[in-house]
Amino acid sequence: MSEKTEQTPPALAPMPEDWRRALAVVAHPDDLEYGCAAAVAHWTDGGREVAYLLATRGEAGIDTLDPAACAPLREAEQRASAAVVGVETVEFLDHRDGVIQYGLDLRRDIAAAIRRHRPELVITLNHRDTWSAGPGGPWNTPDHLAVGRATLDAAGDAGNRWIFPELAEQGLEPWNGVRWVAVAGSTSPTHAVAAEPGLERGIESLLCHRAYIEALTDEEPEEYVRGFLTGIAARTGERFGGVPAVSFEVFPR
Fold first, then answer.
1. Which of 4, 16, 113, 143 is most solvent-facing, going by the fewest CB within 10 Å?
2. Which DSSP string corresponds to the chain?
């Protein structure tokens, strides 16, 4: 009987480069900084525009801080973090942290933002049940599932005049220009961007979430952040020609 051998995962393709505007839609402050920010830094350095849309202000993210005090702190950290990688526009939808519900309200809010920003590329975070392929991976959170799935749906909603017609009445005409939705942190990545051009600023960007990181780990923040981000980039690079990279699962529209 022949021994079973593990299949080598396929190589990751380079991310599309023929676009000018992107909108990144995630649930919480820090979601984009756990890997994706290095790609954002590379893109903005190349003259592309990237805007951030967050469903919550992360107010339920620090156990020792009341949400009323936590929300403005995490908002400020997110704005500082975005600025490090060249993102000037950061918007918040004010859904409740920890209990975001997938549904029409969330889809409408995201579709409205897509119509307003008119991106060619929409970015979101892993919408799948776990954080690793195969059984037994760490369980994802309901907020990530809801926002990721709603973003994939809203990319289509934004272009359909008869879905959420009230948006057009508010002056937000349909936008059919989304060409791809790219999911960061996916368990089934298809594409990647070289991380090294933006990695140091990606590290600095995550370090801006210092209050959150200090509540999350006993490690020294810079050691934790640098180890985490360089480790992920190196593992992703094994499928991208040996170059440290940020991965995405890309859904063409």
1. 4
2. -PPP-PPPPPPPEEPP---SEEEEEESSTTTTTTTHHHHHHHHHHTT-EEEEEES---TTS-TTS-HHHHHHHHHHHHHHHHHHTT---EEE--PPTT----SHHHHHHHHHHHHHH--SEEEEE--SSBSSSSTTPPBPPHHHHHHHHHHHHHHHHTT-TTSSTHHHHTT--------EEEEET-SS--EEEESGGGHHHHHHHHHT-HHHHHHH-SS-HHHHHHHHHHHHHHHHHTTTTT--EEEEEEEE-
